Amino acid sequence: MAKKLGRSTIRLESSPVILSSAAIGSKMEGEGPLGRYFDYVASDPTFGEESWEKAEGKMQQLVLQTALQKGGFSPEEMDCLFAGDLLNQCVSSSYGLRSFEIPFLGLYGACSTMSESLMLASLFVECGLARRAAAVTSSHFCSAERQFRFPLEYGGQRPPSAQWTATAAGAAIVGKGKGVAVRTVTAGTIRDLGITDANNMGAAMAPAAASTLLTFFSDTCTHPADYDLILTGDLGQVGRDLLYELLETEGVRISDRHEDCGLLLYDREKQDVHAGASGCGCSASVLCGSILPAMSRGEYREVLFMATGALMSPTMVQQGESIPGVAHLVHLSASGRGREE
Amino acid sequence: MAKKLGRSTIRLESSPVILSSAAIGSKMEGEGPLGRYFDYVASDPTFGEESWEKAEGKMQQLVLQTALQKGGFSPEEMDCLFAGDLLNQCVSSSYGLRSFEIPFLGLYGACSTMSESLMLASLFVECGLARRAAAVTSSHFCSAERQFRFPLEYGGQRPPSAQWTATAAGAAIVGKGKGVAVRTVTAGTIRDLGITDANNMGAAMAPAAASTLLTFFSDTCTHPADYDLILTGDLGQVGRDLLYELLETEGVRISDRHEDCGLLLYDREKQDVHAGASGCGCSASVLCGSILPAMSRGEYREVLFMATGALMSPTMVQQGESIPGVAHLVHLSASGRGREE
Fold first, then answer.
1. Spatial CA neighbour of A309 closest among A50, A44, A47, A114
2. Of the given ranges (A266-280, B176-190, B246-260), which has the lowest mean pLDDT?
3. Tens digit of pLDDT at every position of chain A (341 positions)
4. Is residue A213 a contact partner of residue A247, using CB atoms and an 8 Å limit?
5. A314 and chain B: CB distance < 8 Å anywhere?
């Protein structure tokens, strides 16, 4: 039975596990430092489709298919599917995943979608609501650019605080059995400290990340030292620095065990991505492609995965509104059963 | 403990209840046949805001505030908030609800959001993941028109199959105690029968409605006659007729106990809404404003509430894609404890 440790922190007593996961990317992600961890790297960013939106839908289809195949599952063995993305009306998810015919619960958490979907999938398995549940998300540089900023053909300049939307997708299958366990989750609260610059989303998300992390430590009576890795994403350089600053005012230091997915995906020396990577697919592919396998190999035991989302739209920013952020946290463990928080 | 009756049909053994609910609308909804059931009818569709998007955010704020007040709750007493809407990046929900500081799980289910959010809120309470959880959604005619179709100033003509997006919002607070109980839920699967006309969304959603309803009857071993009211929404006239047709091929007749929220909200003789109402706020306000109170008064005992969503975006329709639909079902009961399905 799930046990509430706080208002929105829940310990999953039966520790559902991630039975299988997959990550896919495109050329630039393949050339980055994590390139070799992707299950599939497309040389053609259209993924054989005739529009960027359809390409992103195809990515969701491919990544779920790959995760199912790696685990030896058929779609019929999934009781539930949690998915979302950045596109208007989350069409990568609905169009990309419709052919699987799995009961579908659509989410919108912007770039926090991987932790939101993984949290809900894990809770469904924990509570016996699903035998197995899938969590899927994606982003595509080209569909995001033309929707959030400018058509690619325009060649708009990007300020140094801007992040590069990853062309990437991740999927995880949660169930009972062997694998990396989901121990505890904390659902985040929306935070808005008044950032109005849509080219600085890291700063807009950092307060939410700090809030969720502090809530988790407080509710679980644990400290950064209890974890091998605290993985945020996608805060990028600017957001990461602000997160450290916000946590330090509360006396919490994480820098010796913290990584941000936005700073892991690309080589910022060689790849022109400014403040780092972003997009739902960034944290999803870093988690599913690199971190979960590393946990299985024993490189990390206790990991806090906290994807962060900026809940804005171009319309609201054009209307002068600030950018609310949210961050959901999932505590993953490769330590086997029986460990107490 | 929740009990699985099928792949995605779950019986809530502890029967969480709807402790409080609220509905708000604007002038046209106030003039419709359900006008007197709204908690608040705005004479000014801007709700005092300077844009349609901000107006819709204000509606979500108002409707949750009202539901909390009617139940005598503070925001701090809510452990979790499930919300979504039709606007790009679901900004009515994130901007409208950020000030409550309730742990926030964003959804995208298009017009199925009221049943998706109510289902998840109920499951969270059932499984002890939340003491109380809120479900909120909205739509606004003016923000939807300019996003999905044309700016109002353009004065575009609407075909007879088109539906009118309701300027309305609904909120429900789920917890333990006295109220209308949530007995059973069925999460829907995406269905796409190839409808490509964005002015005929009822037809696009009807296959999903039929599929979820048939799954529910099969999983619960019940029949239409076991329920006093089967409430879909928002299928409108065209979608309702198609739903009847699809169900009849399976030998199921519901017409003597079926209503569609899209056909209840407005007086189609006097109000120029073509095939009926639509928008997340349509089924949300019909349920929260009219049906739940009627159940409390004993007018209905067993009600199946199934909001339906068309998971398209203007971009995908412009690219020639068909429109996938989804429908989630919630069985509500005013019969008190102990009744078996």
1. A114
2. A266-280
3. 899 999 999 999 998 999 999 999 999 999 999 999 999 999 999 999 999 999 999 999 999 999 999 999 999 999 999 999 999 999 999 999 999 999 999 999 999 999 999 999 999 999 999 999 999 999 999 999 999 988 888 888 888 888 899 999 999 999 999 999 999 999 999 999 999 988 888 899 999 999 999 999 999 999 999 999 999 989 999 999 999 999 999 999 999 999 999 999 999 999 989 889 999 999 999 999 999 999 999 999 999 999 999 999 999 999 999 999 999 999 999 986 434 33
4. yes
5. yes
A-proximal residues of B, 72-91, CB under 8 Å: 79-80, 84, 86-91
Q: Is the Cβ pair A90, B108 closer than 8 Å?
A: yes
User: Which A-chain residues 126-165 have CB contacts (< 8 A) with chain B?
Assistant: 127-130
Query: Is residue A296 within 8 Å of A179, Cβ to Cβ?
Result: yes
Instruction: For residue A308, count other CB atoms closer than 10 A to its CB.
Output: 35
State the Cα–Cα distance between residues A200 and A202, nearest whole angstrom: 5
Task: Say if residues B216 and B254 touch (Cβ distance below 8 Å).
Answer: no
CB neighbour list of residue A251: distance below 8 Å, 6 or more residues apart: none
Both tokens of B161, joined, read 């199959």
Residue A48, phi-psi category: left (phi > 0), alpha (psi -120 to 50), beta (remainder)? left
Q: Do residue A79 and residue B108 have CB atoms under 8 angstroms apart?
A: no
3-state SS, residue B229:
strand
Task: Return the percent helix, strand and coil in chain A, to nearest 5.
Answer: 40, 25, 35
Is there a cis peptide before residue B219, judged by omega within 30 degrees of 0? no
Across the strands, what pairs with B306? B232, B329
DSSP letters, A199-226, are T-HHHHHHHHHHHHHHHHHHHHT--GGG
Q: Are A204 and A195 in contact (CB under 8 A)?
A: yes
Provide the shortest C-alpha distance from residue A235 to chain B (in Å): 19
B285 burial (CB, 10 Å; 0-12 / 13-18 / 19+) is buried
User: In 3D, which of B68, B67, B59 has the Cα closest to residue B86?
Assistant: B59
Burial of B146 (0-12, 13-18, 19+ CB in 10 A): middle
B50 lies within 8 A of chain A by CB: yes
CA distance A297 to chain B (A): 32
Under an 8 A CB cutoff, do B321 and A54 touch? yes
Tokens describing residue A284: 């999803």
Residue A187: CB atoms within 10 A of its CB come to 29
Chain A residues with CB inside 8 Å of B324's CB? 94-95, 98
DSSP codes, B253-316? --GGGEEEHHHHSS-TTTS--TT-EESHHHHHHIIIIIIHHHHHTTS-SEEEEEEEEE---HHH
Minimum CA–CA partner of A116 in chain B: B105
Name every residue whose Cβ is closer than 8 Å to that of residue B19 and which is 6 or more positions away in sequence. B71, B73, B132, B173, B174, B175, B177, B178, B179
Q: Please state the separation of Cα A244 from the chain's center in Å.
A: 20
> How many other CB atoms are there within 10 angstroms of residue B246's CB atom?
19
> Quick check: A9 and A184 in contact, CB under 8 A?
yes
In eight-state DSSP terms, residue A112 is: G
**In this structure, what DSSP letter does residue B18 have?**
E
**CA dihedral defined by B49, B50, B55, B61, rounded to 10 degrees?**
-40
